[in-house]
Amino acid sequence: MKIHLVGICGTAMGALAAMLKEQGHLVTGSDQNVYPPVSDFLAARGIDIFQGYRAEHLDRAGPDLVIVGNVARPDNPEAVRTVELGLEYSSLAKTLGERFIAGRESVVAAGTHGKTTTTALLAWLLERAGADPSFLAGGLCRNFDSNYRLGDGAHFVIEGDEYDTAYFDKVPKFIHYRPKWTVLTGVEFDHADIYPDLEAVKEAFRMLIRLLPPKGRLMVFSGSATALELARDAACPVLTYGFDSGDHTRAEEVETGNGRVSFRLFHRGQDMGRFSSPLPGRHNLANALAALGLLLEMGFKAEDLAPGLESFLGVKRRQEVIGDIGGILVVDDFAHHPTAVRETLAALREFYPRRRLVALFEPRSNTSRRNFFQEEYARSFDPADLVVIRESTRDTGLRAEEKLDCPRLAADLAEKGKQAFFFPETKPILALLGKEVRSGDLIAIMSNGGFDNIHRRVLKLLAEKPQGKGIRNGV
């Protein structure tokens, strides 16, 4: 079968293209921005990519099926040509549900935060337990060096994204994922470009919960009152996970040291033994509890899950250490929502208590660019010692009165006694770092985008600055 993907260079669309290729289909695609690493990833799999969106691409590809990504609007030339030719078309999420998840046990990790890490962890735990799962995550899973896999086992693990599916399929993606075994990490307002308020976000998650069959399971984080409220609609058993004595799955005797978190796991009142995780922070411990609790409900044994958690490498761009130069640690993280920023910084503070924490932040997402969280951001940076904010150059079409006021945010932080700066460009940030950072510091770079390639530029700056010249030795 010939299948053409419109918007093929998205993370999930690229993975879907590779999965379809593995199934034996002839796959082509197009995108407005074709560049590495996705372009290299697809080329290595023999998938041809057309630059830009043009009607003639459909004529050249001659597809039997067109999969239209959610980047495409109704006036996209290839979407228009698809309809003119009377071709069958579908969305990414619907294709996944029909061609890959159908016939398997669907394991869905959903929620405003933590779903990528939880998806990756569920997949790795199943793999180490010998279940040979398939999975698709929203980030590169370091244990697999991939964001997808087609296994021969009974389970398909997938990140339950609440974002809408396509212009012709205006439902959350997870509606197509046939959920049975499901984690709900929590529900907050997000995706301000498609959801007008928290109630609309809640309704999306209600749709997911109402799909759960009576024989399924729903694991809900007890720390999210909104998620607990929504869980009442479930027809299946609902179990809580977290840190309260009444949680079905909980952690006790938590200890942090030597770059690891160890804890005693309790499930349904039973002591399941001591577990160890390499991931920092209370939020990552919660993600581990969610995955462990769900898999225990699915019938897996604790002794088969412990090695998977201990050997879990995490997801790229989630508290990923990308450099250690001159005693200065550089960490990359996807955090952009104020809750994610706060939890990320708190985790790094706990894991590295003796390091000065320098936070570089680019509010780039459709939600973080808006002033909806103006006050919340002023509280999110409390764990950091030095905060530098750069306004994103990404054009979202927002009016000035709708935008997050970055200079005001820096001023609010400074008023609280925080060393905080705002810069409209990247060069002054690098100049500041050259003067201020010292051995023993930790630089946390937070953005859901490229941040003007600041990651590479910071590493280059540190590599070129000898100790004592600009970069000062710490005490």
Please explain how this structure is put together:
This protein has 15 helices and 23 strands. The chain is an alpha/beta fold and 475 residues long. Helix 6 crosses helix 9 and helix 6 packs across helix 10. The longest helix has 16 residues, at 282-297. The radius of gyration is 23 Å and the shape is globular.
- Our count of helices gives 15
| Distance between the first and last residues' Cα | 64 Å
Strand content: 25-35%
Strand order, main sheet: write it out.
Answer: 8-7-9-6-12-13-14-15-16-17
List the quaternary state of the chains.
Answer: single chain
Helix fraction?
Answer: 25-40%
Instruction: Report the average pLDDT across residues.
Output: 90
Identify low-pLDDT runs: 468-475
Major sheet description:
10 strands, mixed
**Rg calc:** 23 Å
Short summary of the structure?
This protein has 475 residues and is α/β, with parallel strands linked by helices. It has 15 helices and 23 strands. Mean pLDDT is 90; it is low at 468-475.
